Amino acid sequence: MRNSYSPPRSTAYAEHGMACTSHPAASMTAIDILRAGGNAMDAAVAAAATLAVVEPMSTGVGGDVFCLYAPKGTANVIAYNGSGRAPGAANAEWFLENGIKSFGTESPHAVTVPGTIDAWCRLVEDHGNLEIGEVLRPAIHHAAEGYTIAPVVHESWVDAEARLSRDANAKNILLVGGHAPSLGSKHTQPLLAKTMEAVAAKGRDGFYTGWVAEDIVGYLNELGGLHTLDDFAAAAGEYVDPISTEMNGYRVHECPPNGQGIVALIMMNILKGYDIGSMDPLSADRLHLTIEAGRLAFRDRAEYVADPAMADIPVETLLSDDYADMLRADIDPAPRHEGRCRAPACPARPTRST
After folding, report:
1. Which pTM does this prediction carry?
2. What number of other Cβ atoms are within 10 A of residue 264's Cβ?
3. Is 275 helix (H, G, I), strand (E, B) or coil?
4. pLDDT digits (tens, 9 = 90+) for 41-100
5. All structural domains of the chain with their residue ranges
6. Which residues pair with 250 in a beta bridge?
7. What is d(CA 308, CA 354) in angstroms, rounded to the nearest whole number?
8. Which CATH code is given to the segment(s) 242-329?
9. Where are the beta strands (DSSP E) in the chain?
């Protein structure tokens, strides 16, 4: 019930389980899966699949998955990297030979082989109680029968109208009369429903082989992409060792690079050198320190976060106390950080080889 004496949202309690997502339909899907005998992994995948339908500006079956999971009864945290890889033919030499020095987010060369479906199937098989078909059933229902356009979703959809209009397929599937579906209207995605039905029936092969893969590869090739059916058939994520740091008695885990969770850990290492708890959350001093820690951590993300199969990433150094001390020394209590080391005795930053 609502706490009438506190202005923020009231704390929620549950006896057997709870779910929190950015959309009510996804949260209800997770709860329904738990009631049907699924566990946390089943519920998480079901909720993510539903979000891929009802909140398409945030996620989708063409994306990636990073997962942290602690099986019931253990504190052992499992990490899974389900991020996509570039086509096998995509290499620096090819791009340079063809005069391509950069490409934007809408270029086919920016599209990796999706890792989402492989990750969902693998995680449900390894850690879930249900079959992938049952887990995907709510998302298939929303895609085929329709879902109501929520306010936040509508706002983002309107912002993307021009971008979606530049692609014929996106325009046909995601726009109605050239515009975002209206607020409160019902929208369907029958082709997405068919795609998920193929996965429900055949598992990962329903996406990475057969008509779904052929359709994706064919379209990307039309746009100039280097993707092949072999790239899709070979797509596979992997279990990895999570990385972590401790602050105020709590240990926080993240997926390692190429995941970007190391940014949060670097920030924590910087901030635990200050008495943050004694500062007002909205005070200028606390905001200044937090923002500066963010600047430094995101600077290192741009420099070091990459595919570990293609680059040596000094994770241990980046998460060390000595490195945090160095970054902390680079924060001036007055002006903003300008992206360069100003400390007189600032040691060399870790090097990265490719």
Report:
1. 0.89
2. 14
3. coil
4. 999 999 999 999 999 998 899 999 999 999 888 889 999 999 999 999 999 999 999 999
5. 24-146+188-239, 242-329
6. 247
7. 10
8. 1.10.246.130
9. 65-69, 78-82, 147-148, 186-187, 238-240, 243-247, 250-254
